[in-house]
Design goal:
By secondary structure, this protein is α/β, with parallel strands linked by helices. Helices cover 43% and strands 16% of the residues. The protein has an eight-stranded mixed beta sheet, with helices on both faces. α2 (32-46) packs across α8 (185-197) and α6 packs across α7 (165-172). The protein is globular and about 70 Å long.
């Protein structure tokens, strides 16, 4: 047992930047660390080398994640991680290009880029960590802040309707869409692995806790209490099929929500056009 734990610990350490100072910038108990551990283990089990993986992020708590991992990394401007990642994928089509983003970064200022990355079905894996609020900049309401919830910009309750990132991704054309929570660690790790292996745009939404702002302002408790809440408020896709809309209200449906292996990938189509033009010119 001790040997197994040590091997898993060594695998994690192998993928962290050795000169990066820890602890991280995240609040104690933040779900970002859980997601980072799941991502590293998924990469390790799939056997990718560090040079095969490129991580791209924008601005926000979640977007600091690539700073700590020893992969090719690109820390970009707010909401623009996906267009930067598109450029990386075009330049290095053999690489596994991964975008780490949050609900505010991806769906507010980056919403237009998110939609078009899904539409193009470019071979990028987008891990969207959804804590239902802006954390780094002070607890403002985000596109996923539930109606009637409190934030620093909605002190009397949120009157806006919130986005469902998975429904948006599927409607826009993503060919792999899944959801998990930081409580459901084994499922989350497996889903990240499947998303990395999928050829096309894959989006994994991971429900995470921001107990510093969302939890405190909405009286959800500390990190442990919020993880327990994710356990109780989540239902699998199989179970959800037999539940009414009323029963599903306020629940997180977790699992693979949509997979389409028949839609062509954007870089592949671009290469076909390029080769066709070169053939005509010659």
């Amino acid at each position: 047992m001790e040997t197994d734990v040590k091997q898993k610990s060594d695998a994690i350490l192998n993928y962290l930047r050795p000169k990066k100072h820890f602890p991280s910038v995240w609040c104690p108990g933040c779900g970002n660390g859980i997601v980072m551990g799941a991502f590293i283990r998924a990469v390790d089990k799939l056997g990718y080398s560090k040079d095969e993986v490129a991580m791209v992020s924008g601005i926000g708590c979640t977007s600091r994640m690539p700073v700590y991992m020893d992969f090719n990394s690109l820390h970009t401007t707010h909401g623009r991680a996906l267009p930067f990642a598109t450029g990386v994928k075009f330049a290095q089509p053999h690489m596994k290009v991964v975008v780490i983003t949050g609900d505010g970064d991806a769906l507010a200022i980056g919403g237009n880029h998110f939609i078009h990355a899904c539409r193009r079905n470019i071979d990028i894996t987008c891990i969207l960590i959804n804590n239902h609020i802006y954390g780094m900049t002070g607890g403002q309401g985000s596109p996923t802040t539930p109606s009637d919830s409190f934030s620093t910009t909605t002190p009397y309750g949120n009157v806006e309707k919130h986005f469902d990132p998975c429904s948006l991704a599927q409607a826009a054309g993503a060919t792999f869409v899944g959801r998990s929570t930081v409580y459901h660690y084994p499922q989350m790790e497996k889903m990240i692995s499947e998303a990395l292996e999928h050829r096309g745009f894959s989006m994994v939404e991971i429900i995470s806790n921001c107990h510093t702002y969302f939890g405190r302002l909405n009286r959800k408790g500390d990190a442990a209490a919020m993880l327990d809440m994710f356990k109780n408020d989540s239902v699998t896709t199989a179970k959800a099929k037999n539940m009414s809309p009323e029963e599903l209200h306020g629940k997180h449906i977790i699992g693979k929500l949509h997979v389409d292996d028949n839609k062509s990938e954007f870089c592949d189509e671009y290469i076909k056009v390029s080769e066709s033009l070169q053939s005509k010119e010659s």
